[in-house]
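User: I'm new to structure prediction. If I give you an amino acid sequence, what do you actually give back? Let's try with this one:
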Amino acid sequence: MRSDAFQQMEMLRKKAERGMKLELAGGIGIIILPVGLALLIAGINMKEKSYREMDELYREVFIREPFEANFGNTVFESLEGFSEEMVEGFQLFMMGNEFDSEAYGKAVFNDASIEISNVTIDDYDRMAKKDNTTIYFKGRMFVIEFPEKIAASEKVYSRSFSYRELSKEEESCKTDIENGTSEKLFDTYLSGTEDAGKPVSVQLLDRLKSLDKRHKGIAVKLEGNKLILALNDGDGIPFYRSKAKNISFDKELKRAQKDLDDIKAIITILKNLYLK
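Assistant: Good question. You get back a string of structure tokens that encode the predicted 3D arrangement of the chain. For your 276 residues, that looks like this:
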């Protein structure tokens, strides 16, 4: 079944490439109206339609199917997502003036409830004379809720994670991480030292490093009985829109599975550490 989906995505990718070539030809030939204009419109329509269909297949094969295969009691809504108010309430990163969220899933693993969603946060300068959009975040978010409290309020950012949302109190409560290697990769902040919990464990940091290697920055918030995890992919361009000649659907599927393996490991680590 997956091989059929991969073949279909490859066909759509090649169709999108043909659409781009038509679009280019139309742009060059626009001076020869109406032929150039017709080619331009046909190319744009072919490319966008192919990408929409590939987006649908991607959500099905690389998000929903792995999610349902790894967790129990799953619910998945392809076109639903986290609300803007919900994400703003996490206070993990800056909020721009454009927000989008999709591919919402909910499940249970090892007595913890899990919610996932893709999130995009842009800031568009409408006063600029040319397109001036800054991507604050584009990637996948996880909200993991445990049956009991796991930590005081604490945030962990990989050094590559930009546009952080930090209060003055948190900035003043930056802490050193005991593990030397991780200290070079992560910054940790507490909301207040009077309620400080256990330090971030080496096992947890190892899993965060594993996730960070596959993404362009990660952010974590531990507060009360929740862990909120954001995996940033920067510009967020899907792998299948890459101009690289060798597109590996199997490699992308393995990456998705490794992310879920790390999520399951994080849940187990936190449960053993805090809920004994």
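You can read the tokens as a compact description of the fold. Here is one thing that stands out. The first strand starts at residue 72 and ends at 77.
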